[in-house]
């Protein structure tokens, strides 16, 4: 959270803006970001091009009246984060079709993929509560908006490094659920996530004469395994988040979760 607080520049926080459309919103973001005091700085058009390129991959209007536009720039030497409240809303091609009332944006260095993901995850988590977002939108000054956001970020259960870690082992047979859970796990602080392609055992058993007659339909093709190393201090909260996203696990027949205590865990993964 300390890194996020440092990146959230007071000069990049604006309240009560009226913005005509998404294109205007991206330009306003670029102008705020380029004006942030930082070594070297970057040009408005450079930021705007980066934001547009990212939006071409898929909208950053993730629903719930929030958008998190972001990009990485070769010229950036450090992270710049900002907030813009738009009480009347602005169309942003949001996934839920609703106008966006709070924009949290980020510009980061080209070479820091992991830090970029962690920062995005922290921003997303800080905006996960609709009531908190509504309170931020109602802020009447940039100082109030910035402090409301940082107060929410400080509530993140991963703020302290817990003692010990657990291994989450999620076998997922539904592609949409897989993407939802991958995004969810990437938002949990201090978590290392890996994806392992897999195939259901029925794919092999159906080819064995003894069992072939048991699978008259085509065996299920999509199977992925999510491996996540989670601190013990946030294990229960992570399970609750998974159930909020996927529903009661006891009722799923295309999702299996096991959690194991790790006797030893050292090292790390880059990228």
Describe the structure.
The protein has 9 helices and 9 strands. By secondary structure, it is an alpha/beta fold. The chain is elongated, with a radius of gyration of 21 Å. It folds into 2 domains: 2-154, Mannitol-specific EII, Chain A (3-Layer(aba) Sandwich); 165-261, Alpha-Beta Plaits (2-Layer Sandwich). The model is unreliable at 156-162 (pLDDT under 50). It has helices at 2-7, 22-34, 44-57, 113-126, 130-137, 142-154, 175-186, 201-205, 235-246; strands at 8-14, 66-67, 70-73, 80-90, 100-109, 165-172, 192-197, 224-231, 255-261. The two termini are 21 Å apart. The strands form 2 sheets. Strands 1, 2, 3, 4 and 5 form a 5-stranded mixed beta sheet that branches. Helix 4 (113-126) crosses helix 6 (142-154) and helix 5 (130-137) packs antiparallel against helix 6.
Number of domains: 2
Helix content: 25-40%
SSE sequence, one letter per element: HEHHEEEEHHHEHEHEHE
What is the helix tally? Answer: 9
Per DSSP E runs of 2 or more residues, the count of β-strands stands at 9
CATH architecture tag of the largest domain:
3-Layer(aba) Sandwich
CATH superfamily of the largest domain: Mannitol-specific EII, Chain A
Under CATH, the topology of the largest domain can be stated as Mannitol-specific EII, Chain A
Level-1 CATH class name of the largest domain: Alpha Beta
Q: Provide the gyration radius in Å.
A: 21 Å
Which of globular, elongated, flat, extended, rod-shaped describes the shape?
elongated
What is the CA-CA span between the terminal residues? Answer: 21 Å
Largest sheet report:
5 strands, mixed
Q: Approximately what portion of the residues adopt beta-strand conformation? A: 15-25%
Structural class, from helix and strand content?
alpha/beta
Q: What's the pLDDT, averaged over the residues?
A: 85
